[in-house]
């Protein structure tokens, strides 16, 4: 039963009944109309909340028939709630939007259920009503009306199929569910095989350009993405994009979804020139169609921010990441996994600028959310563990950093396997820690193993490869083996210049490291232009007070000192020390009193 037995509820029922009767007869006094309608609305909303909670519980308990009956009760309430709002002279737009959405969602659930049960005749009137309401609420050209039109057209298409073809489609639906279950259990290879079969079956029955095929093709691409097999993901995403643009239009949210996924793939392949316009177009669609505060808009902002961060343009990335965090906290909640993603990303950007006081609490919060919501051994938890380790490493707290780096590596190896790029990334981070504390014998085999993974032909992880090569060269240089260090630094610089461009901070780092080897070998003429370029890049891109700028100043000063040009070296040293003291103060501000005393 929808209605309770309390006296208060009976009074509200009486008010509602009188309200509806008088409205029908046109007898409601003008002065009482709005208060009565508002009272009816609040009463119905209370009933809807109770019925919605009951419906969700029945769905979770797999009580299909009881859930369907509860959905019918919800549908009745949704119609009444919308009526009370539409009868008001000035209904609140937020309430009206919510009431319309609830009515459409309930109708869609009931229609989906009928179709899953094979009752197309029962679904058809629901789909027709969904189309009529969507067009009335939003207009014929709105994407929601387009979706309703497509769903009704699909239902009519099913009516034209033979019993054999319908049976084949049901088999594809079952295979689709099986592929999803395999994906959830991280059995990606078997899931890909089954998802490919789903595409083949549905294409044979519906045709290769049907919108439902685009969804299946996109699912297959996402399975390839989950394995970091971007070469296979690209053609499937391009095919899905082509179908969606033809069937749904260039400004439909489903089109934006594929654009965003394709942008991520190209970003992971370090093809930033292709990724940028895709992210920008997806963001434009989502802002205009879904709104500036929609979670999907936050996803596009994040993708665009990651792209700029990968290019070393943190000044562009940070405001995008901050806006995405604000959207997700507001729309999804403070403990949603995507909120943790944004906390992690903003923290990473602060870390890259050595703003540890801002970064550390963000990463601590992200880790707390992921451990609570996803579990202690989830891949995203490993990312937060690694990020927190890097924060402590930046603060010089090696005792806290080491077990976190080791834990992150353990999770990645367990979840993704010993040959995955994320495992290589964790290996590289642990090796970098050992380099910083001078334990080269422990760092070397980790880097060699990571590089072997990165250099696999299907990886396309050029940026990470360059980073790994650079760290490996640092070990050989520290051991005085310049013959091994020099070609590695040269290779890292070539990769950075190709992938990131000549004015990226990572490119500047490779210049500085290569120049240092030339200095040790006494080849000052080769070292000087590299160091000057590196300083120019860091000054321009990172700013005059960034720690990497101080490193460039110090490297250039060391070169002049080696040539006994002390007049040139001294002002560079003084400026580098000034920057170092400033950043030391920032670091000390968030360390414990004991750590400050040790400094």
3D architecture notes:
- The chain is mainly α.
- The protein has a domain at 1-117.
- The chain is built from 27 helices and no strands.
- Helix 24 (524-541) packs antiparallel against helix 25 (547-562).
- It is elongated and about 95 Å long.
- The termini are far apart.
Q: What's the oligomerization state? A: single chain
**First-to-last CA distance:** 70 Å
Contiguous low-pLDDT stretches (5 residues minimum) are 586-599
Look at the structure and give the mean pLDDT: 87
Biggest β-sheet strands, sense, barrel: none
- Which percent bin holds the helix content? over 70%
Shape: elongated
Instruction: Please provide the count of β strands.
Output: 0
Computed structural class: mainly alpha
Order of helical and strand elements: HHHHHHHHHHHHHHHHHHHHHHHHHHH
**Proportion in β-strands:** under 5%
- DSSP helical segment count: 27
Radius of gyration: 30 Å
Characteristic terms for this protein:
single chain, 0% strand, 599 residues, elongated, mainly alpha, 27 helices
Topology:
Blueprint: H1 7-25, H2 30-60, H3 64-86, H4 93-116, H5 120-138, H6 143-159, H7 163-184, H8 188-206, H9 211-226, H10 230-247, H11 253-268, H12 272-289, H13 295-310, H14 314-331, H15 337-352, H16 356-373, H17 379-394, H18 398-416, H19 421-436, H20 440-454, H21 462-478, H22 482-499, H23 505-520, H24 524-541, H25 547-562, H26 566-588, H27 593-598
Helix pairs in contact: 1-2, 2-3, 3-4, 4-5, 5-6, 7-8, 8-9, 9-10, 10-11, 11-12, 11-13, 12-13, 13-14, 14-15, 15-16, 15-17, 16-17, 17-18, 18-19, 19-20, 19-21, 20-21, 21-22, 21-23, 22-23, 23-24, 23-25, 24-25, 25-26
């Amino acid at each position: 039963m929808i209605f309770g037995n309390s006296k208060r509820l009976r009074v509200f029922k009486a008010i509602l009944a009188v309200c509806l009767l008088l409205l029908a007869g046109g007898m409601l006094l003008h002065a009482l109309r709005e208060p009565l309608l508002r009272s009816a609305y609040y009463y119905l909303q209370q009933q809807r909340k109770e019925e919605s909670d009951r419906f969700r519980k029945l769905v979770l308990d797999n009580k299909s028939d009881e859930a369907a009956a509860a959905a019918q009760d919800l549908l009745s309430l949704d119609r009444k709630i919308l009526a009370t709002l539409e009868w008001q002279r000035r209904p609140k737009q937020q309430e009206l939007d919510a009431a319309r959405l609830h009515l459409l969602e309930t109708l869609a659930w009931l229609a989906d259920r009928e179709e899953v049960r094979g009752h197309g005749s029962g679904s058809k009137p629901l789909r027709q009503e969904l189309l009529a309401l969507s067009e009335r609420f939003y207009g014929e050209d709105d994407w929601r009306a387009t979706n309703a039109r497509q769903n009704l057209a699909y239902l009519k298409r099913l009516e034209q199929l033979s019993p054999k073809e319908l049976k084949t489609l049901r088999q594809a639906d079952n295979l689709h569910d099986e592929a999803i279950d395999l994906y959830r259990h991280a059995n990606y290879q078997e899931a890909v095989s089954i998802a490919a079969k789903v595409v083949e079956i549905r294409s044979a029955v519906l045709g290769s350009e049907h919108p439902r095929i685009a969804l299946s093709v996109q699912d297959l691409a996402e399975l390839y993405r989950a394995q970091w097999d971007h070469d296979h993901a690209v053609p499937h995403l391009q095919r899905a994009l082509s179908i969606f643009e033809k069937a749904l239009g260039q400004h439909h949210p489903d089109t934006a979804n594929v654009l965003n996924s394709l942008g991520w793939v190209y970003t992971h392949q370090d093809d930033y020139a292709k990724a940028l316009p895709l992210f920008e177009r997806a963001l434009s669609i989502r802002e205009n169609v879904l709104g500036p505060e929609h979670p999907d808009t936050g996803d596009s902002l994040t993708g665009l921010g990651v792209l700029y961060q990968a290019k070393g343009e943190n000044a562009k990335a940070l405001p995008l990441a901050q806006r995405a965090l604000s959207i997700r906290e507001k729309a999804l909640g403070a403990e949603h996994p995507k909120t943790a993603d944004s906390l992690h990303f903003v923290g990473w950007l602060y870390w890259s600028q050595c703003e540890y006081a801002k970064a550390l609490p963000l990463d601590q919060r992200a880790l707390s959310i992921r451990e609570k919501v996803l579990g202690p051994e989830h891949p995203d938890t490993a990312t937060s563990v690694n990020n927190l380790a890097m924060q402590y490493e930046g603060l010089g707290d090696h005792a806290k950093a080491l077990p976190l780096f080791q834990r992150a590596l353990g999770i990645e190896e367990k979840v993704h396997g010993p040959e995955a790029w994320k495992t290589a990334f964790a290996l590289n981070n642990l090796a970098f820690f050992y380099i910083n504390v001078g334990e080269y014998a422990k760092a070397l085999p980790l880097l060699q193993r990571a590089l072997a993974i990165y250099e696999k032909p299907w990886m396309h992880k050029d940026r990470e490869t360059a980073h790994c090569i650079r760290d490996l060269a640092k070990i050989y240089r520290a051991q005085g083996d310049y013959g091994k260090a020099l070609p590695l630094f040269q290779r890292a610089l070539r990769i950075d210049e190709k992938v990131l461009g000549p004015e990226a901070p990572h490119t500047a780092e490779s210049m500085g490291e290569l120049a240092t080897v030339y200095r040790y070998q006494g080849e000052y003429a080769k070292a000087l232009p590299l160091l000057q370029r590196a300083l120019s890049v860091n000054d321009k891109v990172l700013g005059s007070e960034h720690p990497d700028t101080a490193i460039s100043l110090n490297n250039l000063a060391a070169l002049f000192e080696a040539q006994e040009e002390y007049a040139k070296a001294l002002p560079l040293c003084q400026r580098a020390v000034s920057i170092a003291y400033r950043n030391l103060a920032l670091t000390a501000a968030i360390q414990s009193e004991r750590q400050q005393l040790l400094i």
